[in-house]
Amino acid sequence: MKNTNVQLSEEALMIQIVRYCKENKKQEFQIMIEELHPYDIAKFYIDLPNKHHHKFLLLMESKQIANLLPELDPPMQIDIVQKLGVELSSNIMNLMERDDLADFLNELSVDKIDELLYAMKKEESQHVQNLMQYPNESAGGLMTNQFVWIRSSYTVAEAVEKLRAFAQYAENLYYLYVLDEDKRLAGVVSYRDLLLAGVDERVENVMYSRVISVPAHMDQEEVARTIERYDFLSVPVVDDDHRLLGIITVDDIIDVVMQEADEDIGRLSATGKTIDFNTGSWRSALRRLPWLILLLLLGLISGSIISSFEDTLDQVVAIAFFMPMIAGMTGNTGTQSLAIVVRGLAAHDLNKKAVFRLIRREFGVGLIIGTVCALLVSGLGLLWEGHAVLGLVVGSSLFMTLIIGTMAGTIIPLILYKLKIDPAIASGPLITTLNDIFSLTIYFGIASFFISHLL
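Given the sequence above, the corresponding structure tokens read:
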């Protein structure tokens, strides 16, 4: 029966879901959700009142729940397992994609993992355990070992026949990987190439023998760069003997890119990568405090700089008017350079030539920005006070501090990268605070030098 309910609004669908849960109408429920994507079903499950969650799951087929679980956050996944019990949960896990299942199990306690793996089919359990031995953020931890492989001696007809026989066990059908007798990766052939070749053509004549692969221990960010460079839909993962262990698909790489971007944003804002909408107040505060205390102590240095130039401020009050602008602009330009450098390091390989080119480019940017802003603020200082020396002090201070701010935002993350420290740790607030110290020192130093002309 054709599903027409997908044309309804989300609100209308939610009303129907609640009604079917209350009235235990499984057939009507199945008709309603048969054309919904697992992501959309997950949205309805999340928004559904908790009292209907158990009935919602009972109205679903096991394969539907297997597709639903990867779309949910770990706490909800664990809650579903507890609601369904070990026996039903193990049947569902037998139907899940193995890489998704490995990620889910890694969120559980050791005892719970053992209990669920023991209840699963022995073969599936072993495959999942093989995936779980790799670190989470490595190629091995990201891959799936569900793929279709063929021999180079196959004809195209034999390859297509095997593809048909094993298609339901493969996560995708972008490429078929060719293995030798020792299961080493010998070549790759796309499904498109098979369709275009003659049925009696041998695979060795249509395959590509130069295969780009990644080692199982490679970091997931480098895997993402590899797929981006070659525009792959999937990439094979091999061990030290070049034996094929699994494949990583582009949809998993998109998840990696989003995850890494969230982590970098967390570090740039000095909030940390483990704070999200579900983090409690105490935990969130404790994770932010170390950074904030460090910035607080650095801020005291800025205060001591201001107090040491108290005589200058007392004599020329106009100096205080431009102080927030000088400090703010320096911090802003430093944060801009920091963001550009961190983003560039994530997308490009770093070498000496590239570093010098980047520093030279950012120095030029600092000169241009500093010149334009200095001329503008010098004119404002002259118009506001009618004092050319005040305009000179503010303008020259801004010119110097903008160059220093730009270079600080460029060089600090490069130094950290060279020291094999994540450059995103050089967070925006830290760069801003350091630039406050630089800018105030320069500003008050120049103002004190010209104090006799300002009076």
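The first strand starts at residue 149 and ends at 150. Try to locate this feature in the token string yourself.
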